[in-house]
Amino acid sequence: MTDSAQTIAVPEAPPRAWRWPRSSGPIVRFCRRKPLGAIGAVIIVMLLTMAIFADRIAPYSYDESIARMKPPSARFWMGTDNLGRDIWSRVVYGARISVTVGFATVALANLLAVAIGVSSAYLGGSYDIAIQRVVDAWISFPALVIVLSLLAALGPGLLNLILALSIIGAAGASRVIRGATLGIMQNPYVEAARAIGAGHGRILMRYVLPNIMATIIILATIGLGAVILAESALSFLGLGVPPPYPSWGGMLSGSGRTFMYHAPWMALFPGAAISLAVFGFNMLGDALRDVLDPRLRGGSGSPAR
Amino acid sequence: MRHYVLRRLLVAVPSLLIASFIVFTLPRLVPGDVVQLMLEEKAYGKDLEELRAKLGLDRPIPIQYAAWLASIGRGHLGESLWTRQPVLTELGRRLPVTLTLGTMALTVAVLIGVPVGVIAAARPDGALDFVMRSGAIFGLSVPSFVQAIVIILLPAIWWGWTPMTRFVEFSRDPLTHVLQFVIPAVILGIASAASIMRLTRGLLLEVLRQDYVRTAWAKGVGERAIVLKHALKNAIIPVVTVLGLQVAQIAGGSVIIEQVFSLPGMGQLLVESIFQRDYPVIQGINLIIVTIIVITNLGVDLLYAVVDPRIRY
Asked: What mean pLDDT is reported for chain B?
C-alpha cells in the first residue's frame, strides 16, 4: 500500500543472457564454487526421483494397512502410522504432491508474473502506475491470509490450492521481473532494434525475454521452496489435498499430532522431508542467484509460513 | 512534518476502503454454500431461500457490502452466521492473544536479527558469521509448525515432559499467561529474525565498504564506534521497511502457530471460520489484519524520519 514496501533491489543493468550449459565444465565449476548449491541440487534430484518413480520406490502402497504404530525398523524404515500404513511409502508418495503443486504453481505464477511485470515495464505510463498500486496492495497483505480466504471461497483441493498459491506468488515475482525488464529496456540494443523497425513482439521475444531468463530461473527456484512450504502449511491446516492421499503437511496434522507422543516417527519424518526439500530449493536458488545475477541479493523471506 | 502526517493519513483511508472491498468480496466469490452447509449439517430452518433471506445473503453483493460498511461505521462487524454472536465480541476476546503473540514474536525477531546481523557483518566469513548464516538458512527452511512439533516432542521423548495445552487466562495467573507465549513467540519470530539478520548483514557489509567509513578508520576511530555509530545508522533504514513487511509475515504465521499451540487467538478463529464459511467472522478478521498492516505501513513511513534525519517531508 506504500511505495516504500519494496525490498528487492532493481537491477540497473541487464543480467547476462542465460543459456543452457553446453558441456559439463560449467556444472563442475558450479559445484566447486557453490558446494551448498550443489547439495541443494542433489536433494532436488532425489525429490524428483521419488516423485516420478514413487510406485517403484515405495515398498507398499500409500493407503495399504499392514501393521499399526510400529517403530522404525528394517522392514518399515520410518515406522507405521495409527492406521497401519508404512510412513516411508507415504513420504515417497507425498513427494508427488509437493512436486506437482510446486512445479504447477511456479509455472503458473511465473507466467502471470512475466505477463504483468514485462507489460508493466514495457508499456509504462499510467498502466504501469495502476498495475503497480494493485501489486503494492497485494504484496502488503499476509500471503497466508489471502490464500486462506481464497480457499474459503474456492474450497480445498489440489487445483484450487495451485490456483490460490500462484496468484500469491505472481505478485511478488512480477515486481522483480518488472525491475529486470526496465533494466533491459535501457540498453542501446533495444533502441537499435526499435530503430531498425522491429515490432513489439520481436523486441520482447528476441531481446527482452532471453535477457530476463536468468531472473526468471532464480525466481522459480526460490519460489519452488516457498510453494512447497506453503503447500505443507495449508495441508497442515487441513486445507490442502484431501486424505487418504498423503501430503507431508497433512501427515503432520491430525493423527500425526494426536499420536506423536506415542509414535514420534509419525510426525518427525514428514517434517524432515518438508524441511529437506525446502532447504534444497533455497540452497540451489541462493547459489544460482549468486552465480547468475548477484544483484538480486536481498533479505527476502518466503511468502507463507 | 505535520502536513506529511496528515497527507499520509488521508492516503491510508482509500487503501483501507479498497482493502475492505477485497476482504468483503473474496470469500463471496462462490456464494450460497454456507446456507447449503447449514441446512445439511445443522438443519437450521427448512427452506433454503428462507434461511438465506434471514441471514441477509439474498441481497446483491454491492448492497450487502454497503450495509456492512454502514454497520462498521456504527461500530458493528455483524454476527457470526453460526453462533449468532456479534463478531466484535468474539474478536475482542481473540485479538489480545494474537497481539501478545505477534508483539513478542516481532521483539524476538528484532532482538535476534539485528545484533546477530551486525556481529556477522563485523567479521565476515568468520566462524560466527558462518554459524549464524547456517542458522538463518535453517530458520528459513524448517517450517514453523515442524519447529514447533520438534520443540514439543523432544522434551516429551527425552524427559517425559509435555507442555500444557490448556490456555491460561491473564486474570487467573499472569505469570503463566505470559510464559505460555514464550515458545510460540520465539518460533514465530525465528523466521523473521533470519530475514532481518541476512538483510542487516548484507546492508552493513555494503556500507562498511564506503569511503567515509575508510576515512573514519584512517582517523583512528574505534571499531565499535565505526560499526555501531557510523555504519549501522545508514544500514538500518531498509531494515525498517522490512520490519513493516515482517508484521504481515508474522500475522500470517500466527495462524499456524496458534493452531499448533492451541492458543485461542484470531488465527485459530480464522481457520475455524473458513471451515464453516462464516463470512462475517472471516471479513471481520481480515479487516482487522488489513487495518493493522495499513497502520504498520504508516508507522514505518513515519519512522523513516526518525531513523534517517536526511528525510524531510
From this structure: 79
Residue B79 per-residue DSSP state? B
Q: Measure the CA–CA gap between A176 and A223, rounded to whole angstroms.
A: 12
- Between the CA of residue B263 and those of A182, A299, B184, B282, what are the distances in Å? 46, 30, 9, 18
Residue type, A73: S
Element housing B298 (H / E): helix B279-307
With contact defined as beta carbons under 8 Å apart, do A228 and A270 qualify? no
CA–CA dist A287, A281 (Å, integer): 10
Task: Write out pLDDT tens, residues B160-170.
Answer: 666 656 677 77
Which B positions 132-171 lie with beta carbon below 8 A of chain A? 137-138, 140-146, 149-150, 152-153, 156-157, 162
A–B interface: beta-carbon pairs under 8 A: 175
Sequence-distant (6+) residues with CB within 8 A of B128 are B119, B120
User: Which residues, other chains included, contact B227 with Cβ-Cβ below 8 Å and sequence gap of 6+?
Assistant: B118, B121, B122, B204, B208
| pLDDT tens digits, A59-106 | 777 777 777 777 777 777 777 777 778 888 888 888 888 898 999 999
* Cell numbers found for residue A295: 544483484
Residues 6+ apart with CB under 8 A from B214: none
Do the chains contact at A140 and B245, CB–CB below 8 Å? Answer: yes
What are the angstrom distances between the C-alpha of A105 and each of A102, A213, A270, B150, B307?
Answer: 5, 18, 21, 29, 39
Q: Are B282 and B275 in contact (CB under 8 A)?
A: no
Type of residue numbered A291:
V
- Rounded CA separation B129/B123 (Å): 7
Q: What would the DSSP string read from start to end of chain A?
A: --TT---SPPPSSPPPPP---SSSHHHHHHHHH-HHHHHHHHHHHHHHHHHHTHHHH-SS-TT---STTPPS-SSSTT-B-TT--BHHHHHHHHHHHHHHHHHHHHHHHHHHHHHHHHHHHHH-HHHHHHHHHHHHHHHHS-HHHHHHHHHHHH-SSHHHHHHHHHHHHHHHHHHHHHHHHHHHHTSHHHHHHHHTT--HHHIIIIIIHHHHHHHHHHHHHHHHHHHHHHHHHHHHHT-SSPTTS--HHHHHSTHHHHTTTT-THHHHHHHHHHHHHHHHHHHHHHHHHHHH-GGG------S--
A302/A282 Cα distance (integer angstroms) = 10
Q: Are A228 and A102 in contact (CB under 8 A)?
A: yes
Closest Cβ opposite residue B248 in set A140, A239, A299: A140
Among A239, A282, A304, whose Cβ lies nearest the Cβ of B252? A304
In chain A, the largest separation of any two C-alpha atoms, in whole Å, equals: 73
What would the grid cell of residue B190 be? 525465528
**Residue A90: C-alpha distances to residues A48, A104, A258, B119 (Å):** 15, 21, 18, 43
Exposed/middle/buried for residue B86 (C-beta within 10 Å: 0-12, 13-18, 19+): middle
Cell numbers placing A207: 531481446
| Whether B259 contacts chain A with CB within 8 A | yes
DSSP B260: H
Tell me: the pLDDT tens digits for B122-158? Answer: 887 778 888 887 788 777 788 888 888 888 877 777 7
